[in-house]
Design a protein that fits this description.
heterodimer, A: mainly alpha, MetI-like fold, 2 domains, 14 helices, 0% strand, globular, B: mainly alpha, 13 helices, 2 strands
């Protein structure tokens, strides 16, 4: 492709990806309760309302609690599983990894309905625990994939050398394995955290009426009309995602992670 | 040093714990859903344990057929648009210097991680009368007065593609990153123009990856749930919306489960096809 054509094409993609965010950013600054772009008057009142009104603070607190606990839960499943996959050559470790990837591959509504049926059966429908555990299982795929990649990057000869020098399993894990997988652990946690924060359908199905997370709150609020507060929430979410993934891009190996996170490479 | 199998209590626990969690919280819920699809509805409750095939019999209504057809159609249409734009884009992306690639990837992953609620809201603003792009067209003299373009089919298409485009790029990224850079170079040396090289050598040698991406993105689009509700009119609702509606608002969990099982069959068949297609390498080389 010629240079000009290439520039034009890349520019068009960038405009497509960024213009909704720019417009919403402008709308979030309107001085009056109206959605104009360019904004009429500039004010940060809508951001103040977002972080000041209990109506919004409660869903924010719910979302943060769910995201934090469920991504820790996802790590707690993914870390031993990916370690076992790397350490032991047993077939059921492979089968378990496939099982860990499955919830993410199906249309989300199906997994969500499965969770709904489960929590309704055990009598925990509508509790925060149901949301947390469902998200932990739903998003286990992400740390599982990043951690498997991390373990694969460990040079087995270094581990053998340490063992020859008398290190036991625990020492090997602490001094060699853990430092090597740390950045993959953080990336996996971050992916699960951000996606849990943004997730709607599973949270809605298992406890939508009692545990209101931020996406559920936004959707419910949309029905009663649009306000610039929603634009402010959008900008906060965008900035948070950009910050987290920007940090991973800066300190981690994003191109390698991208290569691994796609189904095509999982299949082979 | 690599032990063939776990030894000792702690080692066994490293596999036992994830196995137990996934079994209890994923396999069992799935089994329950499958079972519920054969049970009877309990008005005011969830379900009655009573075997019946009625849910599957009640599945194929005119509404279900229309919604299924529309879901398949819009998902395929958006998959086509995304792969058509995403393939050349990903090709250019993989040829960029690493630093610029990372910047693009950060943007793409950030957009992909955004809640569908937020994407739908952003696009409904983007296409609204007071803040939307039609104002820009008025200023450029292309329109007389600003218009509202949401909800509607094209608003839905924009929203769906906005989510699916980053996903498409991530699906296409590994095969394109692995493409031997000498291949296009050789074509250029032999006198092919850049565009001819792109369409014959690059598209040609990655045909199976393109097909796999089409099906993957199609299956991904089938899962769209919130975007049709905000950016589409009721006739644009997808199967995911219908299933949730049945489960939550009509509290007919058994029928919703039967729909989900049917839907899963369709999705699994498609994902399976994509994986088979992705494995086959071009040129018949084993």
């Amino acid at each position: 492709m010629s240079r000009a054509l290439r520039g034009l094409f890349l520019g068009a993609v960038l405009v497509f990806l960024l213009s909704p965010i720019v417009v919403v950013g402008g709308v979030s600054l309107n001085a009056k309760k109206a959605l104009y772009f360019p904004p009429k008057g500039v004010s940060l009142a809508w951001y103040a309302e977002l972080f000041g009104e209990p109506e919004w603070l409660l869903p924010i607190a719910n979302s943060l609690a769910v995201a934090l606990l469920s991504s820790l839960g996802a790590i707690s499943i993914a870390l031993p599983l990916s370690y076992a996959l790397w350490r032991y050559r047993v077939f059921y470790a492979r089968a378990l990894v496939l099982l860990g990837i499955a919830p993410f591959m199906l249309p989300p509504v199906i997994t969500a309905l499965g969770f709904l049926a489960f929590w309704a059966t055990v009598g925990l429908y509508g509790t925060m625990a149901a949301t947390v555990v469902s998200h932990a299982v739903f998003f286990v795929t992400l740390p599982l994939v990043t951690l498997s990649l991390g373990f694969e990057s460990i040079d087995r000869e270094i581990v053998e050398a340490a063992q020859v020098l008398g290190a036991d399993n625990r020492e090997v894990f602490r001094s060699i394995v853990f430092p090597m997988i740390r950045s993959y652990l953080v990336s996996g946690f971050a992916f699960a955290f951000v996606l849990s924060l943004n997730e709607y359908i599973v949270a809605y199905m298992v406890a939508g009426f009692t545990v209101e997370t931020l996406p559920i709150k936004i959707f419910n609020a949309l029905r009663y009309g649009y306000t610039p507060v929603m634009a402010a929430v959008t900008i906060v979410f965008v900035l948070l995602a950009a910050l987290v993934f920007g940090l991973i891009g800066r300190f981690g190996d994003l191109p390698r992670l991208m290569g691994a996170l796609t189904p095509e490479s999982r299949a082979s | 040093m690599i032990a063939e199998r776990p030894q000792g209590a702690l080692a066994r626990l490293t596999l036992l714990y994830p196995a137990a969690v996934l079994l209890v919280f994923f396999v069992i819920p799935f089994g329950i859903m499958l079972a519920v699809s054969f049970f009877r509805r309990e008005p005011g409750g969830f379900y009655l344990v009573e075997f019946s095939l009625a849910n599957y019999g009640n599945l194929f209504t005119a509404l279900f057929g229309r919604v299924l057809a529309f879901s398949l159609l819009i998902s395929a249409f958006c998959a086509l648009l995304c792969v058509a734009a995403g393939f050349p884009f990903t090709y250019l992306l993989t040829r960029m210097p690493r630093r610029r690639q990372v910047v693009w990837l950060v943007i793409l992953v950030s957009v992909l991680s955004l809640s569908a609620v937020i994407v739908a809201f952003a696009w409904s603003i983007m296409l609204s009368q007071t803040a939307g792009v039609s104002n820009l067209f008025v200023r450029l003299g292309l329109l007389d007065r600003p218009q509202s373009w949401s909800p509607g089919f094209w608003a839905l298409t924009c929203g769906m593609c906005y989510v699916a485009f980053p996903y498409t790029v991530l699906v296409l990224y590994p095969p394109l990153a692995r493409l031997d850079p000498h291949l296009p170079e050789a074509a250029r040396t032999l006198g092919a123009s850049p565009l001819v090289t792109f369409f014959t050598v690059i598209v040609g040698s990655l045909r199976s990856a393109i097909v796999a991406a089409l099906v993957m993105v199609f299956a991904f689009n089938l899962g769209t749930y919130l975007i049709p509700q905000i950016l589409g009119k009721p006739q644009h609702w997808t199967l995911s919306v219908l299933i949730t509606d049945e489960a939550i608002y009509r509290s007919n969990l058994p029928l919703a489960a039967a729909m989900a099982v049917f839907f899963m069959g369709v999705s699994l068949a498609l994902v399976g096809m994509a994986m088979l297609g992705g494995r086959r390498r071009p040129g018949g080389a084993a």
